[in-house]
Design a protein that fits this description.
This is cAMP-binding protein. This protein is of the alpha+beta class. Helix content is 40%, strand content 23%. The protein has 2 domains: 134 residues, Jelly Rolls; 74 residues, Winged helix-like DNA-binding domain superfamily/Winged helix DNA-binding domain (Arc Repressor Mutant, subunit A). The radius of gyration is 18 Å and the shape is globular.
Length: 229
């Protein structure tokens, strides 16, 4: 699944909401100061408690952001696709990473150092609007996830997780490149229970699986099951 608004080659930050208030020339300077990095599928970008020394801007691919329990169990918090960013929380407060990040597929990013980002905040006040939107989105997402675990049963959480992964894609059929274990981590259930929910959805004609991919064929039905209509 490719998110709309992927940055163009001549202005790699054009679609990044965080930098929307900057002039194209300023965005170009920011992009020039960033370091390109590539990750293979399954490779870690950073780990929880690592120094928060850079802002990561996803140019291609997908990144999962997750927490790990002392038992080793994972809770997948969300997935970042182009033109999304991650790592902004630790970047601003100077603390360590609050979560880990892993490439779900071959992924290309731009990494902007904390020093360069703070200088940008000082010299380009319009970026503060983008920073506030980014934090607002993060708080809303975490609040929404907490509410889901209180008010929704597991199938409802699975349905809502799939809708989040579909995002703004308006196609009637959307392929989600996320395996069932990762989906279980996001929905907060066991793999077996999530598989049962997917089986029920498949029987109803809402989706089907193709290998490790989930093909969503009835988005309105999933939205209703998730209590979003």
């Amino acid at each position: 699944m490719t998110a709309p608004g992927t940055p163009q080659a001549d202005d790699p930050l054009a679609g990044v909401d965080l930098f929307a208030g900057l002039a194209p020339a300023v965005r170009s300077r920011v992009a020039a100061a960033a370091v390109p990095r590539s990750y293979r599928r399954g490779q870690l970008l950073f780990l929880e408690k690592d120094p928060g020394d850079s802002l990561i801007m996803v140019r291609r691919g997908a990144v999962s952001v997750f927490r790990t329990a002392p038992t080793g169990d994972r809770a997948l918090l969300y997935v970042v696709r182009p033109p999304g960013v991650l790592g902004e929380l630790a970047l601003l407060d100077g603390g360590s990473r609050s979560a880990s990040a892993e490439a779900l597929e071959e992924t290309h990013v731009l990494a902007l150092s904390r020093g360069a980002f703070l200088e940008l905040v000082r010299t380009q006040p319009p970026i503060l609007d983008g920073v506030m939107r980014s934090f607002g989105g993060l708080i809303r997402r975490l609040t929404d996830q907490t509410s889901d675990h209180i008010f929704l049963d597991l199938p409802g959480r699975v349905a809502k997780t799939l809708i989040r992964l579909v995002g703004d894609n308006r196609s009637p059929v959307v392929t989600i490149d996320l395996n069932q274990t990762q989906l279980a981590e996001m929905a907060g259930g066991s793999r077996q229970s999530v598989n049962q929910a997917l089986g029920t959805f498949a029987t109803r004609g809402w989706l089907h699986t193709e290998g490790r991919k989930i093909v969503v064929t009835d988005i309105p039905a999933l939205r209703r099951r998730a209590g979003m209509t």
